[in-house]
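The pair is listed for reference:
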Amino acid sequence: MLPRMVVFLVFAGAAFGQDATATALSTPDSYELFFQRVVSASRSEAPVSDQVLINGERVAATRVSAREVLGLTDAEMAKLTEIASECTGRLASIRQAGAGLTMAARLERIAREIGEPDGTTQAEQRLAELEIQRREAIAEDMQKLKDSFGEDRFQALDDQVRSGKNPAALLDVPKAKK
């Protein structure tokens, strides 16, 4: 009975152990989400009605692109999309490499906690290595953006990414015409 309770507590701790008040994402997490949204927005071709209802009135709508939301030129948006696509591809490979390790790492932790002498840490070490690779991949792509955009343009983009504003703003959304 005790091992089952330990398993439950370990899984519950892993699921709920994070500080619920911490809503801001770390820089790598922010950029990973940002890159995913950019790639998603670049592939999105969902039709948008030419009419929207605002305060009970029908008004003409236009499509606001991610490029417009971010204030980028066409060339900058193309470069951002290229870098974001490359990064999300590399991150998917890293995630796939660690897919089976999460359960193994949890089982290793349980084995150590209940005192089994063979409680190795190989899976946990490999997961930590993959997390380092993930952070390095994101940092490299942030540097590519900085090199491509220049310091000032990159800083403006970086401020938007780190601002914590709704990332769905990168999706094409209807906007009333004036």
In short: Strands lie at 51-54, 57-64, 173-176. Residues 1-23 have pLDDT under 50 and may be disordered. Residues 2-8+25-176 form one domain.
